[in-house]
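Supplementary material to the annual report.
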Amino acid sequence: MEGIEIVVPLDVPREERERFLDNSRALTGGKGRVMLFAGDQKVEHLNDDFHGEGIAPDDGDPEHLFRIASRGRIGAFATQLGLIARYAMDYPDVPYVVKLNSKTNLVKLNQAEPLSRQWVAVDQVARLRDANNIRVLGVGYTVYLGSEHEAIMLGEAAQIVHRAHGFGLPVILWMYPRGRAVADERDPHTIAGAAGVAACLGSDFAKVNYPSGPDAQERFREAIRAAGRTGVICSGGGRMEVSPFLERLHEQIAAGALGSATGRNIHQRPLDQAVRFCNAVYAVTVEGASVQDAMERYWEGPGT
Amino acid sequence: MEGIEIVVPLDVPREERERFLDNSRALTGGKGRVMLFAGDQKVEHLNDDFHGEGIAPDDGDPEHLFRIASRGRIGAFATQLGLIARYAMDYPDVPYVVKLNSKTNLVKLNQAEPLSRQWVAVDQVARLRDANNIRVLGVGYTVYLGSEHEAIMLGEAAQIVHRAHGFGLPVILWMYPRGRAVADERDPHTIAGAAGVAACLGSDFAKVNYPSGPDAQERFREAIRAAGRTGVICSGGGRMEVSPFLERLHEQIAAGALGSATGRNIHQRPLDQAVRFCNAVYAVTVEGASVQDAMERYWEGPGT
Amino acid sequence: MEGIEIVVPLDVPREERERFLDNSRALTGGKGRVMLFAGDQKVEHLNDDFHGEGIAPDDGDPEHLFRIASRGRIGAFATQLGLIARYAMDYPDVPYVVKLNSKTNLVKLNQAEPLSRQWVAVDQVARLRDANNIRVLGVGYTVYLGSEHEAIMLGEAAQIVHRAHGFGLPVILWMYPRGRAVADERDPHTIAGAAGVAACLGSDFAKVNYPSGPDAQERFREAIRAAGRTGVICSGGGRMEVSPFLERLHEQIAAGALGSATGRNIHQRPLDQAVRFCNAVYAVTVEGASVQDAMERYWEGPGT
Amino acid sequence: MEGIEIVVPLDVPREERERFLDNSRALTGGKGRVMLFAGDQKVEHLNDDFHGEGIAPDDGDPEHLFRIASRGRIGAFATQLGLIARYAMDYPDVPYVVKLNSKTNLVKLNQAEPLSRQWVAVDQVARLRDANNIRVLGVGYTVYLGSEHEAIMLGEAAQIVHRAHGFGLPVILWMYPRGRAVADERDPHTIAGAAGVAACLGSDFAKVNYPSGPDAQERFREAIRAAGRTGVICSGGGRMEVSPFLERLHEQIAAGALGSATGRNIHQRPLDQAVRFCNAVYAVTVEGASVQDAMERYWEGPGT
Amino acid sequence: MEGIEIVVPLDVPREERERFLDNSRALTGGKGRVMLFAGDQKVEHLNDDFHGEGIAPDDGDPEHLFRIASRGRIGAFATQLGLIARYAMDYPDVPYVVKLNSKTNLVKLNQAEPLSRQWVAVDQVARLRDANNIRVLGVGYTVYLGSEHEAIMLGEAAQIVHRAHGFGLPVILWMYPRGRAVADERDPHTIAGAAGVAACLGSDFAKVNYPSGPDAQERFREAIRAAGRTGVICSGGGRMEVSPFLERLHEQIAAGALGSATGRNIHQRPLDQAVRFCNAVYAVTVEGASVQDAMERYWEGPGT
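Predicted assembly:
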């Protein structure tokens, strides 16, 4: 599998082109596909994903995420700036994607339309990066399409893309159709629409849910095409067993996904297992490994 | 058919007059009428216009739009800045109108009043243009008159016109009466009102829906008069056959429309057909061709 | 009838006093009373006032307004900046009041509370004036008192007065009690209250509706007293015959009104008639002519 | 009765301390207690307080307020900046408190929660003061505690205090519990709470309603204690006879109130009477006069 | 019990590191645990906590809080800037945490969703500190998670943390799940979630409610783990007797709490008792004293 040529968008200024390319290559292992270790759930799901039955006790402490990120093979670890600011000095090699907005899961969809607003500005992220020499490879932001507050999030997303590119930072948009107006969040056609919106916002990657159903792979191709030069990343979703997870992932990559975002399936495991799982996910996502190869790496353990 | 003298509005500063005139002439082929290839539907209609029955497979990929725009004769291709930033380096000759706001079609009118807010600032567009030497000829913005959020969009539109003119950029406002208060979006008198509002906002062009009904042409003249020195552009609307489409277009131009905006009727066709259709639309819109002449061009094909 | 001494408010800086005085004198013909040709209805009433039964065909084109304003005697022509920016180069002698906000009439009072927000900033108006040497004599803004959005408009109005004075520009506030909370928009006591609010906002003039009823004149004096040093201008309202219109106007001026604002009653007539009507209105408003004298001027025609 | 030492709050910068002290002394006659002539009702109550049965005809003209303020003894005349800007040149000796927000009384509490927003910025007031050498001794602002919009007003109030102190200007906050959540606006415990909030906002004075009921004085002391170093000022409320008014005022001062704010009870009288009433109120409020002494001054007339 | 190493977050600029460390050490007595004397209730609870049955009369005057803070042993006294600005000149040794937002308790949860907005900016606090040499050791802010207005408060909190760190100021976030969506504000799992959100916001400390129920201590550990390097502080809650209060506090500290926040239990007592209670709380919180030792200190009295 070849490296994919990176198109530097025109809102990256000349003097930031090299940095943008470096960040993009680092994010995608030089192969064009990003393996995102998603760790923004401490806000999005409160402590539900970190404590309880079937969750390794390790996961109760946020440092677990940094330990995994520093030992496993990942494209980047996506989390909030506040957490990075308090741990990154001890994990100098971890590559980060700063998630710029988050909301809790307390207010349900039947109570109010979803709204998640920007917490920190892109230039604040860039200054933190420059002052501390930490590896911030990009920024992320969630857009709830179909929410009555959609206009707020579309506006913030457009500005984030524009400004992030100004600092040489690629952007990943979490594109989630959600709200009273959205009958089925996993409808492939709606997902394709969401991927297309990310492209119009100028995002480098669009993180979407993988469709459900028997012809998921086929139907998912609509989204990949709709996104054009914006890479589509599949959300990992809820907890699954290793083998079916990797099989689904392989199917997504085979369909043309330019990455995967895995959270709970990694961090809910004990450290060693989590690291090995990371590596397996990385192998399939970035290196184009078969499921069998990836399973072997999972069982072999982290190595070195 | 003669070239029409361009009135440079007073909010164009002296040092930008030449650029404004150049942009206006380029936009209108020196004839005063703009043939707009409208391509903002990837947000406005999600993937509905790009995938499905009766839509050419080519259209699933956003690059299809750029391919058409670079091979067909157009006044400008209107789309979001994010998409332009990711493709324009490969399509250096395409003239663009940057659509500054967009909303999805998920929230229906019976759920909430329409609101579409600005994504990027005019000066960000101008800087992108200047840094990359791309052919941005103008900017566009949608106003939903009659929405309870009308005040927000009127305010943004007024500022966009003022600032765009400050950078030598003509403006096209999509003027759509929409919301609970609007009984009939295609009522000619309401459309005329919308065109008049665009004039009061200082817009160079107002894109409106063409009225329905037998005496459409006659009734449409109300809008053209109401707009005064602001040119009225007719929306292309849903998919039609080539010949009736061109006939309606000819009727609109004959009524005094200063342009047409065509989206789905162009891009839902395979590339070659789409390009030929573009050329036919251009012939009628800009060059004042008869329907028969335009049909001939359509059948002849693009040529060089 | 004597010239009335102009009180320059303290928020006019020393270096702008002369300009403020010049503008005030020009606006009021040196007599202290302003004859405002109100032409913001293309937004406020869409095309209802410009097309239809009983409206001269001339009125369908916005240039009709400029033609009247340039040939008739007026204190100033009040309209939106966008329209001025596109016509004023051809009408260099017309004095303007820039109307800074406007809303359409689509959303009715039983649907939502009225809200009209500022379109352009005072400094943008001042720069346009200075760059083009056009005769902007003042700015205008509508406040819907009693709307649930009142706080927004009171705040914008206060800032507009303060800033307009900073550029030597007098201000006319359209003071309209409107909304669910307002039982009777033409209640003289409420109108007096509205006039008093304009005074507290520091406005130079308050445009209000003239009360209805037999003792209108007497009751109107409450408003004139409440406004103090802020001049009260009467809205012209809907279409009337020439003679009763001028009689009512004379009654208003006799009651102490410091001006009149006439829109539809002027521009719905053919150009020549409209110009003569302007002159009649000017005669009564500014020059203190009797109704008979004014009627004579109306029949004599514009002359030079 | 002794002069009370003024505590200069720490947000008054060193270079503004003398001015703050001068303003405070002038405001309180060097005695620590402020006699506020409250004249913001032209917005708050529209023309209800200025025209009608039992109201002197003088009061219909806003200049009546300035005439009283210039002839009577007052701590300061509180009104909106717009009015000051139009009259203060003729009343150079009047001390002012600029009321920075106001709302009308049209929207009732059963329709919508009360909201009053800032009209002019503190630095605009300070510049007006400095450019014209007028005696602005402080600024005022109303907070409706218990309104659903409370957060907006608390934020504006906190910023106003901070910035006013930065320009050497003391602040008076009108602290009114109001809204659906407030069962009894004159509940002494709630009033005490409101006084305490003013203290936490850093205000110099808190204007509150005096409790009703037989043990009002005793219960009012809770508010005075709760306010700490922030002085409590009693609102004058609706029209009363001279003698009971002064008796209640004396009771308030005896309870520890650091001032009174009287509006309607002053300005609804004819000029001479109003001035004498002012002086009587001043005597009780600032000079600690007995009711009998004050009544004598009222009957004696203004004198010099 | 050892001093705990302080992790300086990466958003503290190099030149503010020493100050941040000094502030952190002062705040925690060099032991890593903060004893917060919480005094923001004059807004949060109006005068309910300061006047009434079972409350010492001393408490009616806000200066009582400063007297306690200056004589008792505390980590910091948390209150609004306005109060500090008016008393701190007389209490130069008191260490402060400036509470940046507050709301009243008038609007109940069944009426509207809770919203508390920022009153003063961090840089205003820092300037006040620097100009007056007062001991501001940090800032505080309340976030109501689960409120429909959550997005506003999350955004303000994130900015406050980022900016406070920029001025060398540690941050304490009051993390309260509250609103229609929150079934049980004291559910340990939800509290743990709230503590985790504070960590993601980058806060130094998270003030939460201590869970109720028999296995509170055990369940509370979930929150402490979830907060990671962000210290968890327990709210003191309603009035209790000395001994059970200290026992519960000891249990909290033993569970790993990095501090306590006590308000009513301190200031509702007469000064001497309040000071002794402070010292007992300090002993348990910061010095790791046993309940018995702390009780002894309480009975012994403050001493010098």
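Residues 14-300 of chain C form a domain with the TIM Barrel fold (CATH 3.20.20.70).
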